[in-house]
Amino acid sequence: MSDNSQPSMTDRLLMGAAGLAAKTWPIAARIFPEGPDIDSNQSLWAAQTPDYQAGQPLKGTITCDLAIIGGGFTGTSTAYHFSRRYPDKRVVLLEAKSLANGASGRNGGMMLNWVTGVTDHSPEMTKRIYDTTSAGIKMILEIIQRHNLKVSHRTDGTLTFYTDRKRAEDAHKECEEHNAIGIPSTFIDTATLAKQLNAQGVYGAVLDPDSGQINGAQLVRSLRPVLVEQGVEIYENTPVLKIREGSTIMLTTPEGEVNAKAIVLGTNGYTTRLGYFRDALFPLHSHVFATAPLTAEQREEIGWRAYAGYSDDYDRISYSTLTNEGNIVFGGGSNQSYAYLFNNRTAYPGTPQSAGASFRKMEGTMYEYLPNSKRIPIMHRWTGTLGITLKRNNLMGVRGDNRNVFYAIGYCGHGVTLANVAGAVLTDMYSGDDQQWRGLPFYHATYAPIPPEPFRWFGYQTFTKLTGKSPRV
Ligand SMILES: Cc1cc2nc3c(=O)[nH]c(=O)nc-3n(C[C@H](O)[C@H](O)[C@H](O)COP(=O)(O)OP(=O)(O)OC[C@H]3O[C@@H](n4cnc5c(N)ncnc54)[C@H](O)[C@@H]3O)c2cc1C
Question: pTM above 0.85?
Fold first, then answer.
C-alpha cells in the first residue's frame, strides 16, 4: 500500500521535466540499445528446489503455433491454460536460464488480492477486482491440488499494517465499506494484533483472510512435467535475442530459430531488453532476505503466532512472510532496498556482500517491527527484478500489425496472483472469448510514458533522493 498524499511541488516539477525528456526517445533508443542481461536466482525459494536441473537449449529451427518467451508465472500459466484449451496446437516455451529464474522465483512470496494502480474506486469495480484476484488464488490452489504439486504454501491470510493513527482509522472505515459489498476483510486493533503478530509501531491492521504465501520457484518448477505432459516443448538456457514480427514471427536464439504464428511476452521486468515497452516499464532491483528457520520458542518470543505475512503502508513498502518451514522472508522498507541501474540493466552486478549496507538497513526495519527477531541469523540474501510502470498498473493485451504479440507485464511487485491469472487472460484473448476480462484495469491498459536515458536514470536518482519515494504518477 502506498500513502495517498497529493503530489508535492517537487513531484510535479520532476514529472514535468520527465514529460519534456520523453521527447528525446527517437534518438536515445539508438544511442542506448539494450540486450539480454540475466543473472542467476540466489533465493531461498530456489534453494528449496535442490534437485531442479535446467533443461536443454533449443538447437535448430522449429515452427509452432505459440511461442512463449519467459518461464516465470506468466509464461508457465499461459503454457498451462493454452495447452489445455488447444491440445492440438504446438506450444513452445523459451526461457533464458531456468524456469523461475526471474521474479517468480525471487519474490517475497505474498499471494495477494487486488490490482495495483487502479483509479476506479467504485464499489462495482472494487468488488470485481477482489473477485478476480480471489478467484486467481483459488485457481493456483486448484492447480496445485489437481496435479499434486509439491509446493509449500499457506493461505491463512495476510495483513496490511497501518503505521499512522489516521491511516488506521481510514483503513478501518474502508474495511467496513468492503464488508458491505461482500469483501471479507477484517480490521484488527492494536491489542488484538499484539496477541497474534506482535509488531511494534502499528496502529491497526487489515486482514485479508483469502490471501497467503507461496514458494513460487516450487510452483513453476513443479509445473514443468505437467506442461510437458500437456505437449508443451520447453527449452531452457535459451535466451531470445531478436524478434522479427510478421504474420509468422521469427525468434532468434543463440543456437536456433523459432517461426511462430503468435508469441507471448512473459518477460516482465526484462521486456525492454527485447525492444518492447521501453517507454512503459523500468526494471527495479529489489533486495530480499530470509532468516534461518525459527524454532517454536523463537516464534513465540518474536510473537508471530498467526498469519502468513504482512506489508506496511509506506511508499517504500516493506513486506514479510513466514514460510511453513519457519523462515521469515523480508523485503523492501527503504530507498536502499531498491535500485534502478542505468539503461534498464536487469542483472544485478553486486553480491549480497557488496549490497551489505542495503541489507543492513532492511534488517533494521524488520527489527523495528519485530525486535526479538534480532537474534535470528540471516541465511539467504538475494535480489530480484520487478517490472514497474509509472502508474503502477500492469498491462495485459495483444499488439502488432498482425495482432499476434500477446503480453502480460508490469505487475509492480504484485504479480504472484496476477501473473498466474495472466495465462487464463491471454488464452481467452487469443480465442476471442475474453468478455470476462474486459474493463478490468489491466485489460489493454494504457500507461504513462517514462523518458529514455540518460534522463531516466538521472530522474530516478533525483526523485528518490529528494522525496524518499519511488517515481509514480
Ligand atoms: C524481490 C521481489 C519481491 C516480490 N514480492 C512479491 C510479493 O510478495 N507478492 C507479489 O504478488 N509479487 C511480488 N513480486 C512480483 C512478482 O514476483 C512478479 O510480478 C511476477 O513473478 C512476475 O512474473 P513473470 O512471469 O511475469 O516474470 P518473471 O518471473 O520475471 O519471469 C520472466 C522470465 O523471463 C525470462 N527472460 C527474460 N528475458 C528473456 C529472453 N530474452 N528470452 C527468454 N527468456 C527471458 C527470465 O529469465 C525470467 O525467468 C516481487 C518481485 C520481486 C523481484
Answer: yes
